[in-house]
Amino acid sequence: MKRKILIVDDEVNSLKVLAAALSNEEFSVETARSAEEALSMFQGRHYDLVISDYKMPGMDGEQLLEKVKTQAPEIPFILLTAYGTIELAVNAMRKGAYTYLTKPVNLDHLESVVGDVLLAEERLAGEDIPGRHQFLNIIGKSKAMQEVFSLIRRVSKTDANILILGESGTGKELVARAIHYTSLRADRPFIPIDCTTIPSELMESELFGYEKGAFTGAADRKVGLIEMAQGGTVFLDEIGDLDYALEKKLLRFLQEKEIHRLGGTSKVKVDVRVLSATNRDIEKEVEKGEFRADLYYRLNVITIRMPPLRERKEDIPLIAAYYLDTFRRKNKKEIRGFSREVLDILMQYDWPGNVRELENVIERAVILCPYDEINAECLPAKLRESPAEEGCGCDELNLPEMERRIIRKALDKTAWNQSRAARLLGISRKQLRTKMKNHGLLPGG
Description:
alpha/beta; Helicase, Ruva Protein, domain 3; 4 domains; globular
């Protein structure tokens, strides 16, 4: 059954564009040109998601949010605004908004966010969908991932600080979001802070805020990101990159649950849970004195390690199928699956970029694939020519396997031009196509 979305905006063109972007086989869309009209549509009707502009004549989007949450607190709500600041976004999330997007809205991003929102709502109970091996947006049937799911379930209902370890691209932020959205703080803000993207000279004011006149240019009070997460969760991503001078101030906050805004004289009590993550060997940095040991122990009450994809290759077909389904819908492509050879290649590759790299490969393949099945020519050359494929462990005296690999090499050298590949092999194009079909190399075959 289609999920029902209500879009609220006083601009007719904006309504049309948003409705067209989200109307598909999964979602049905209804629109309203004012908050008042939207509330009247709630009488006797159910919606799975509300998307509303913030600034509208009469009742604004934040007021509509409050009304909707009074009538149906379980319905996720996304705010759109061209006038937003981080403070506005967090204030709306405090009142129950799932997230907020700035206008003009990137339609691809909107579609992705809507999918994530509805998927998260389906998974809030923290249970796997039979046969899908998913926990919120994390996918894996391997023993390592089942242990991660088990840890998330056990820690989510506590307030313990969690340190999430893992290489780039393994899904550390997904784990943090899963902990938050299955916790008792799920209806409060989740504030991610990337310690690598905020300049070190601005990090203190971003984390803790400042008072008016604290420094030149501080014309008004600014509430910091930690304070904005009041009642919710702060996720410090790549904590290993935090400026050493700030570590002591962060430690003081963790110990006292209080902050000082820059230029302020009073303490501000803050009730937040702190989750953090790093792709560094943080224990070695502690040993070398490059990361404070006392801060490390405060952050690391419980550790969750996200395994790299090369250590859980049995999850690759599941993850690939998930992204195939995601991107074929997004790109409106009729692709039913992967060829046997593609699955072999995906399983043999070591994925240094982890799940993020696999996602990128599948998106690229879906976009480029002209057939109803993704075959090897749709994959990047580095996968088709990877050493893992050459050392696949096949018996070197296995004639059919050797023939398949020789044909593959000829096709790769000729950019999969069958006539040129046939000439290179010294056979006719018809013979080549017969062999390609026998070996599962024929596009769409």
